[in-house]
From TrEMBL, chain A:
Taxonomic source organism: Actinokineospora spheciospongiae
Keyword Nucleotide-binding attached: no
Protein name: Transketolase, N-terminal section
MF terms in GO: magnesium ion binding; transketolase activity
EC number: 2.2.1.1
Record-annotated Transketolase N-terminal domain positions: 22-203
EC class (word): transferase
UniProtKB/TrEMBL annotation, chain B:
Keyword Transferase carried by entry: yes
Keyword field contains Transferase: yes
Keywords: Transferase
GO molecular function, one term: magnesium ion binding
Protein name per Swiss-Prot or TrEMBL: Transketolase, C-terminal section
PANTHER family the UniProt entry points to: PYRUVATE DEHYDROGENASE E1 COMPONENT, TRANSKETOLASE-LIKE PYRIMIDINE-BINDING DOMAIN-CONTAINING PROTEIN
InterPro entries in the record: PDH/Transketolase, THDP-binding, Transketo_C/PFOR_II, Transketolase-like_Pyr-bd
Source organism per UniProt: Actinokineospora spheciospongiae
SMART domains: Transket_pyr
E.C. no: 2.2.1.1
A UniProt-annotated Pfam family: Transket_pyr
Domain called Transketolase-like pyrimidine-binding: residue spans: 15-181
Domain of life: Bacteria
Length: 219, 312
């Protein structure tokens, strides 16, 4: 139990029998690697003060996120069965006040990184991870936070950008360069390769924030 | 700094609220490591010592107002009591969705402290004026809104706000009344009369008292307009008459719905005075000249109130 192989069945409970959609979910693998190998979080104590924080800034399409939280035991798996119903804690956009283990309510793009920066500033010890999409980077609020975090050398902050080339006008020169020029350490990995993602997410960055670009290139 | 011109102007007209805020907050930051401050360049020169001494909870993000609110929310989520400070339009209007989501929707609080008010410095024009700030925050759930009328009212309001985790707006102005009033939660009765009730919010009290001199009306004062003191208004109406005038130094009608709700079982009349909604006032000049256009000077208030109460 609590394995990657369990996820399709959990995903089915949200979506029906369209298993291929899970494989197509761009955030699935990096979310799994984060929760399985990187984050110091305890489903039995989701509000522990010394926990790492994970913020899903890209709040759209949270099914993989919910499946992983259920697999890891943050809430009962049966919770998945009536998601989106009135009274369910699970909606199309997560709500931190309803779902154990969810650190921010998201859905409107461009809010997670500035909040993550504030948490990183306010925490001594725990690390803060925030996941964005490459399309979400269009929001200017991200670039406000990228500059401030870089200049502060906010070393307990990691931004994960899932890049499936969905940004309307693209990012010439690559996404990592947008962070690097502001003083971030950057690492790029195949967004389906768990070992490569783990290496990227655990890149040493003692004096600067870390940006991990998880590339998804299939259709 | 890009703010040099504004700060010079503010300093020349400064009569206490901003200084009281800086002094009170600097002291709180030094005494309580739970207190945090996020700035976006504005007023950073007033907190140089705190920026240096407390780099993990006193932050100047530069001219980045979206990040200013987001970072404040992150600090709040890690248990800090966070103050955010800028000019009213850059604090409330530019990052309005961040205020709605990063604070309200996340279920955390912060204290937003503005300067500039409605038309403290008309020479700066519309870009630096935010007469709708209170109205906008009132459209979001759970905000306590303070509109102090004197520099001496700032410290008690801020200190009380720091002791909570609520969402609080503290609207500072360079305009102020001659006499400070208590930082009471609701309406404070100042005069009693039989023709109706006149409410003065914050720094319009001097004009209201002058305008109603010799009129048989009840005058109420408050520096806390949200939550709205329905009990206090109802008691005042019950001992006067169901005719209510609200004089607010920001967008006209902002509290009209509160008055109507308070008196919904009672036939009543109400008059709302404040800055005009019908057009943008494209003029520079002095705050007093703008007051006159909005009908917020003593003469304008007197004409409106006498007409409303049908007295000569």
């Amino acid at each position: 139990m609590n394995t990657y192989a369990e996820l399709p069945a959990l995903y089915d409970r949200l979506i029906g029998d369209e298993k291929h959609h899970l494989a197509a979910t761009s955030t699935l693998d990096v979310l799994w690697v984060l929760y399985d190998r990187v984050l110091r979080v305890d489903p039995a104590h989701p509000d522990a003060p010394d926990r790492d924080r994970f913020l899903l800034s890209k709040g759209h399409g949270p099914m993989a996120y919910y499946a992983i939280l259920a697999a890891k035991g943050f809430f009962e798996k049966s919770t998945l069965d009536n998601w989106l119903d009135f009274g369910s804690i699970l909606g199309y956009h997560p709500d931190r006040t309803l779902v154990p283990g969810v650190e921010i309510g998201s859905g409107s793009l461009g809010h997670g990184l500035p909040i993550a920066l504030g948490q990183a500033i306010g925490l001594s010890g725990p690390r803060v991870f925030v996941l964005l999409g490459d399309g979400e980077l269009d929001e200017g609020s991200n670039h406000e936070a990228i500059a401030v975090a870089g200049r502060r050398g906010q070393a307990n902050l990691t931004a994960v950008v899932v890049d499936n080339a969905s940004a309307t006008h693209g990012w010439p020169g690559g996404i990592a360069a947008r962070f690097a020029v502001e003083g971030w350490v950057t690492a790029t990995a195949d967004g389906r390769d768990h070992d490569a993602l783990e290496r990227a997410l655990t890149t040493d960055h003692p004096d600067a924030p870390l940006a991990v670009v998880a590339e998804i290139r299939e259709n | 700094m890009t703010t040099q011109t504004h700060q010079t102007t503010q300093t020349q007209r400064a009569t206490g609220m901003r200084e009281a805020f800086v002094h009170t907050l600097a002291d709180a930051l030094d005494r309580d490591d739970r207190v945090a401050l996020v700035l976006a360049a504005i007023s950073a020169d007033r907190f140089t010592d705190q920026l240096r001494r407390h780099p993990n909870r006193v932050v100047d993000v530069g001219i980045r107002e979206q990040a200013m609110i987001g970072v404040a929310a992150g600090l709040a989520l890690t248990g800090h009591r966070t103050v955010v400070h800028s000019y009213a339009p850059f604090l409330v209007e530019r990052p309005y969705e961040q205020i709605k989501l990063d604070l309200g929707h996340q279920g955390v609080g912060a204290i937003l402290v503005s300067i500039g008010a409605s038309h403290d410095d008309p020479a700066t024009g519309r870009t630096h004026q935010a007469p709708a700030d209170v109205t906008l925050l009132d459209a979001l759930p759970g905000w306590t809104i303070h509109v102090p009328g004197h520099g001496d009212e700032v410290a008690p309001l801020l200190t009380a706000a720091l002791a909570t985790d609520d969402r609080v707006y503290l609207r500072l102005s360079t305009r102020q009344n001659t006499t400070p009033m208590p930082a009471a939660p609701g309406f404070t009765p100042l005069r009693h009369g039989g023709l109706g009730v006149v409410i003065a919010v914050g720094p319009v009290l001097d004009q209201v008292l002058a305008a109603t001199e010799g009129l048989d009306v009840t005058v109420l004062y408050t520096n806390t307009i949200r939550p709205f003191d329905r009990t206090g208004l109802r008691a005042a109406v019950d001992s006067s008459a169901p005719a209510v005038v609200v004089v607010e130094p920001y967008l006209r009608d902002t509290s009209a719905a509160e008055v109507a709700t308070t008196l919904r079982d009672l036939p009543h009349r109400q008059l709302n005075l404040g800055t005009r909604r019908d057009s943008e006032l494209r003029a520079y000049g002095t705050p007093e000249q703008h007051d006159a256009v909005h009908g917020l000077d003593a003469a304008g208030i007197a004409v409106s109130v006498r007409d409303f109460l049908r007295v000569g």
